[in-house]
Amino acid sequence: MESENTAPEAFGLGFVGRRAAMAEVSAPNRCRLIPADASEKNVGNSQNLYIEGDCLDALRCLRETHSGRIRMIYIDPPYNTGSDHVYNDRFRQTISAYRGLGAAADEYGQQHSAWCAMMYPRLAIARELLTEDGVIFISIGEQELHTLLFLCDELYGAENRITLFSRVTKKSSNNGGQFSPCVDYIAAYARCAVKVPPYTVALPEEIVSRYKKHDAHLAQRGPYQEVSLYMSALKHGGSCYPIVCPDGQEVIPPNGKPWRWNPERLAKGLAEDRVVFKKSTRSPLLDARTGVRAHWNVYTKMYLGERGEGLHPKNFSEAFPNTLASHELRRLGIPFDFAKPVSLIAYLVKLQTAEDSIVLDLFSGSATTAHAVMQLNAEDGGCRRFIMVQIPEAVAPNGTAAAQGFQTICDIGKERIRRAAKQLHAIHPDAEFDDGFRVMRIMPDGGED
Q1: Burial track 155-186 (b if 16+ CB lie within 10 A, e otherwise)
Q2: Given pLDDT bands bounded at 50, 70 and 90, which one contains residue 236?
Q3: Which of 10, 244, 314, 383 is 20 to 30 A distant from 176 in Cα terms?
Q4: What are the backbone dihedrals phi and psi of residue 169, each rounded to the nearest 5 degrees, phi first?
Q5: Cβ 196 vs Cβ 279: under 8 Å
Q6: Is the pLDDT assigned to residue 96 strictly greater than 60?
Q7: For 29-201+312-444, CATH number?
């Protein structure tokens, strides 16, 4: 038997409860989904699902029906900001239960181990539901960012990490200690990154406005802007060679630096009317024969119509602060704290899904994801479907939600979907989209229907 000092070393994440969490991944399904409320509108026709119950049980049920079918998963799990009770496989683990696993009295380790034990099987089974080009997006704060990345690198593969997206949550804050927290993160992992098509977003108006020039190719290529063939910051990628200008002067970049295009690319550009020569008294180029300042500069035409669908999205954004979510819920009359903005989820859904994709949310809360899916369908005529999963946690007995008649988080989420659908019909009166949902609840095998 190998001792601790002679056993092979390996890079990875260890936590108390890991073996039990791994066993949960392959544990048999002992639950089933049954209709919970036949009164929901369009229950017979809707392809959308709202599942009431623990998301681990829901995942096991969905594994039997939806493996390889989900194009996008979004989850907004607990950020684990700390308390005496911390999240584990059944959402709660006390300090005494943690020590019962044989762990030392370590409050920091207890907090992170319990969170990892809760997340591990959910992330593992979620991967099985994804299509080959499917992606899971996971909102997270600083508290568990490091452990989440370790977990996902192990379960999905570090090579399948799409990005870590940083989002400004608030622009005015003076909370915290040394720094005021105003950012959270979205980790994106693919089932197979090489099969995920490139993401693009529309060009911002400030870029489109630069394309002001027209030529004989306007109908085919659109307007264009001129870009210098020599750029001082370019050190590699092209080559240095003389270019003959209209009056016979041969020009080269200074200091032996390269052009953006090699000779073959330039010849093709000249043949296709993509090169512009302009006389200049301040040209950075040199006469190739004398070494003095040239009186020509050389530009290439960049056409708007040839830029494709747009830009690759940046992995940082200030466009989706939490105040947007507060305003959205206030307009709907929905009492809920800490929701994500509809625009944020719609942004991700639009990047990742086709118009007939299934989108799954395992910690649906106020059902922002369902709202976002319906909104996109109303805007572009798509038929995306959503599956929301939420444990029916009771609302605070003395809170606003209880005063309005809501008993559980599920009640809030379902009502938010109804009100959002009504609002979207008012905004898009001619749009046709699936505004209903079937409500299912998780029943343990042997339980009463």
Answers
A1: bbeeebbbbbbebebeeeeeeeeeeeebebbb
A2: low
A3: 314
A4: -90, -30
A5: no
A6: no
A7: 3.40.50.150
Put residue 357 in one of left, alpha, beta given phi > 0 → left and psi -120 to 50 → alpha. beta
The domain limits of the chain are: 29-201+312-444, 205-306
Phi, psi (degrees; rounded to nearest 5) at 259:
-75, 165
308 torsion bin: left (phi>0), alpha (psi -120 to 50), beta (else) = left
Residue 302 region, left (φ>0) first, then alpha (ψ -120 to 50), else beta? beta
Quote the pLDDT of residue 172: 78
3 state DSSP class of 224? strand
The pLDDT value recorded for residue 90 is 40
Task: Name residue 137's beta-bridge partners.
Answer: 74, 188
Question: % helix / strand / coil in the chain, to the nearest 5?
Answer: 35, 20, 45
Write the single-letter amino acid at 330. R
81, 141 in Cβ contact below 8 A?
Answer: yes
Structure tokens at 27: 């544990």
Q: What would the two tokens of residue 298 be?
A: 């050389």
- 23's CB contacts (< 8 A; 6+ apart) are none
Q: Within 13 Å, how many C-alpha atoms sit on residue 7's CB side?
A: 6
Residue-wise pLDDT tens digits, 380-406: 999 999 999 999 999 999 999 999 999
pLDDT of residue 86: 35
pLDDT tens digits along 183-200: 999 999 999 999 999 999
- Residue 187 bridge partners (DSSP): 138, 164
> How many Å apart are CA 333 and CA 342, to the nearest integer?
15
What values do phi and psi take at 408, rounded to 5?
A: -135, 165
State the DSSP code for 399.
Answer: S
Two tokens at 287? 């006469």
Residues 324 and 362: beta-carbon distance below 8 Å: no
Give the up-direction half-sphere exposure of residue 183: CA atoms within 13 A in the CB hemisphere: 13
- DSSP track, 146-210: HHHHHHHIIIIIGGGEEEEEEEE--SS---SSSS---EEEEEEEESSGGGSPPP-BPPPHHHHTT
Instruction: Give mean pLDDT, residues 146-161.
Output: 97
In a 10 Å sphere around its CB, with 0-12 CB exposed, 13-18 middle and 19+ buried, how is residue 140 labelled? Answer: buried
